[in-house]
């Protein structure tokens, strides 16, 4: 299936075939270069490499959020120079969100920008980073704080890559599917909350529905002036938690941190918006069933608040949230005082 | 005087006054941050600082092309975090081409991009980098090889800043004025070639004419697919020479390197295009009178060719040039074989 994103590019969802690469060949690039990571070069590249011309350079980035920084960008830019990549080349970015965000940024800034194509290989990147043109890296301990908005020439989503993932990775990506439903589509939420066994989900139907929610939000507000901020639901607290645990052994996957964030921000929604207690309970019960509970030590509260204050979503010193008025309905540009946020963290801890 | 650049922004040429800053205040940014360099913070900031709200953060970058790299960008990004700069802030970039290119890039990638305003303080940046949205830094020994295209909210060109420059800096910037005339405006070339004393030029008339040539070229071809490449005249060899001497004590200013490049590429234009011998002589005589002659050692030829091959203007392994068919008329996408380029270097050396 094809989803049109503005005039600029299309998202193809389904098996990647010769047809896809024929289309790419039709664009007459001077060359192709593949970006992969330590994992996708082994697990995912074999699914497409027979479509690539012999000698296509493949650049492998170290995997994981901890490597999503300027140092890795330098290695990738150097590899592009070494491969003789020119302005009329196209980069094929094969990986999860980290690789997609970083290699897209690298392509968008190499010689002031070359075209790039995204082939997301994780559930998270299929339903989230594949739409919306957000590219970048972490800097100064703040996630995605250096980057650009830029669209790929196309996104090819092939659920076959999901077989290369661990159950935990699939669960992490699923968090964004829950989020899309909660912020914009009550009907989808009614469907999603009946899912209890992720290994039995038919991804070929649920991915297009979820991508489409994001697509509609992004088309209406590409540069995050308003509506698009609704996608940040669960992410103000979620990003802080993810950053806090990033350099520890218990590090949380993005979707796990966001699930905890969605629980806490749903509680904030009952305090600062009109979310009902029944809806809060339903959301909380569902997310705890899927993701379990990870207590947040009181000693971390100060640092978490600091991280939230640095979040690029804030427009001044206040901490910005997207809250739910009801399942399927979000309100952007809400703020919460530190005391209230601490109360949310304590309330969440009490659920454990 | 006001030059409109597409719908997106205006270039104001003339004294910077309270009116300018009232207009900026009307845009209701959450804050302003000033980028300057070691020189402009001393020489230029005093001309505008009484218009800035008390406490406006001023970030000072080390001056010069050798500092136009990723390490300096990191310092600037860190300073922005420290100053609490949010997405709705505006950066005011006060400096020459190096500072404008680099701080514009830093602003365009900080939190995926904040607005920025350019106040060019050198003749080079007034007539060249002020129009066209090219931002970036040097990387891997290649000039401007990492960057983006992005337009400022406005450019304010005030010839008063020229008084802060050395005669050599003025002469460097003047090279682009000559170039604009040669590639696109024969009449302007007839006027320019009568100028022999740069200290007597009325910049308030010559700058608008020159900026306007560049503006018309860029409006027609913002992303350098074709016509805009005409602005690269003199720059294929000029950039290589500039890079080669960059780390030496005799380093050439940009305009000096480009003047030598224009002489050699004019010679190539007689060999590979229809430029007449008389025009070549006129161009050569004029440029040598203004810029003198700087011999290029034979031992450097190999490295210069390597630098030219890495130039981001090339679309494959061939070395790309813009040549003149006649003064005022350029042809883009010409190529020259290494032997021919070496011949141009030798011919130039013979002029000394």
Descriptive overview:
Two copies of one chain form a homodimer. Chain A has 352 residues and is α/β, with parallel strands linked by helices. Chain A has two domains: 2-164, 3-Layer(aba) Sandwich (Rossmann fold); 167-349, Dehydroquinate synthase-like, alpha domain (Up-down Bundle), CATH 1.20.1090.10. Chain A has 14 helices and eleven strands. The first copy, chain A, has a seven-stranded mixed beta sheet. The first copy, chain A, has a two-stranded antiparallel sheet with strand order 7-8. In chain A, strands 10-11 form a two-stranded antiparallel sheet. In chain A, strand 1 and strand 2 (9-13) form a beta hairpin. In chain A, helix 10 (235-246) packs across helix 13 and helix 11 packs antiparallel against helix 12 (277-291). Chain A is globular. Chain A starts with a strand and ends with a helix.
Question: Key features?
Answer:
homodimer, 352 residues, alpha/beta, Rossmann fold, Dehydroquinate synthase-like, alpha domain, 2 domains, 7-stranded mixed β-sheet, two-stranded antiparallel sheet
């Amino acid at each position: 299936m094809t989803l049109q994103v503005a005039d600029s590019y299309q998202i193809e969802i389904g098996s990647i075939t010769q047809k896809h690469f024929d289309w790419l060949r039709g664009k007459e690039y001077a060359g192709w270069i593949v970006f992969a990571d330590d994992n996708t070069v082994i697990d995912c590249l074999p699914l497409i490499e027979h479509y690539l011309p012999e000698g296509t350079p493949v650049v492998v980035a170290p995997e994981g959020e901890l490597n999503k920084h300027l140092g890795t960008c330098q290695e990738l830019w150097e590899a592009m120079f070494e491969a003789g990549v020119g302005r009329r080349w196209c980069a094929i970015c094969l990986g999860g969100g980290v690789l997609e965000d970083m290699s897209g940024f690298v392509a968008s800034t190499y010689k002031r920008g070359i075209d790039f194509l995204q082939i997301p290989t994780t559930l998270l990147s299929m339903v989230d980073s594949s739409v919306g043109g957000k590219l970048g890296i972490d800097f100064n301990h703040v996630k995605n704080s250096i980057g650009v908005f830029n669209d790929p020439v196309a996104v090819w989503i092939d659920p076959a890559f999901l077989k290369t993932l661990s159950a935990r990775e699939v669960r992490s990506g699923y968090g964004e599917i829950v989020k899309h439903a909660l912020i914009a589509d009550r009907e989808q939420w009614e469907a999603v909350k009946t899912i209890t066994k992720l290994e039995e989900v038919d991804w070929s139907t649920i991915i297009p529905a979820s991508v489409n929610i994001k697509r509609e939000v992004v088309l209406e507000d590409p540069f995050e002036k308003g509506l698009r901020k609704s996608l940040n639901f669960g992410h103000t607290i979620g990003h802080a938690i993810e950053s806090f645990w990033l350099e520890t052994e218990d590090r949380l996957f993005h979707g796990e941190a966001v699930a905890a964030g969605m629980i806490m921000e749903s509680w904030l929604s009952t305090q600062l918006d009109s979310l009902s207690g029944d809806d809060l309970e339903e959301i909380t019960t569902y997310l705890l069933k899927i993701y379990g509970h990870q207590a947040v030590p009181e000693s971390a509260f100060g640092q978490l608040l600091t991280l939230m204050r640095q979040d690029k979503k804030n427009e001044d010193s206040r901490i910005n949230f997207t809250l739910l008025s009801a399942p399927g309905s979000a309100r952007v540009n809400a703020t919460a005082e530190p005391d209230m946020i601490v109360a949310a963290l304590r309330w969440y801890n009490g659920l454990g």
